[in-house]
Amino acid sequence: MDLNKFDTLASLTTEKVVWSIRVRAQTVWKGINRTTNEFRGFNIIFMDEQNCRIHAFITEKLCPAFSKELKEGNIYILSDFKVHDCKGDEANRAVRNQKHIYFDNQTNFKRITEDVPLMKEYAFDLFGLNDVPKFLNDNRFLIDVIGTVSKNEAISVISTEDTSKSRLKFKLEDGRIWSWLRSLTNLDNLLKKL
């Protein structure tokens, strides 16, 4: 099997339209006009095997051709699409990639159901809570507080001749488990009093 059969998301440029990528649809959501409530199309966050992510958009006119096959979590081969640079103050970007993918009439989109590659289900960026104030004045990116990182420890260092990368193992907690444990403790104390 040819290992270079597919382009990576990091290699996409605006100079050509003949691309072939293998990606997971990490997230899919409907684009709705806030003023008129009109459906504008589908937004997708695609992720490749290198965990690179990119935003893609299917206009409302093209949605019937792709909507039956499009499902969050599935892996696809996508080819013959347009790539645009992000320009200016585009509000509500979901990833920090400087490119967007746009489906057009020539785009081919096929779900992989056999020989499915190992590909992570999710990728996301982590930032400290102290970084939130600088994001509040930058409306280009969507942010959300999803939890607290705890018990973090470096578990390995990968080095090559010119770079080294560390891997970090951590737990991400949203507080629900602690509320549940506290409620059990309170329940246990109440039972002891009876």
From TrEMBL:
Gene3D superfamilies: Nucleic acid-binding proteins. Residues 5-109 form the Replication protein A 70 kDa DNA-binding subunit B/D first OB fold domain. InterPro entries: NA-bd_OB-fold, RFA1B/D_OB_1st. This is Replication protein A 70 kDa DNA-binding subunit B/D first OB fold domain-containing protein. The lineage of its organism: Eukaryota, Viridiplantae, Streptophyta, Embryophyta, Tracheophyta.
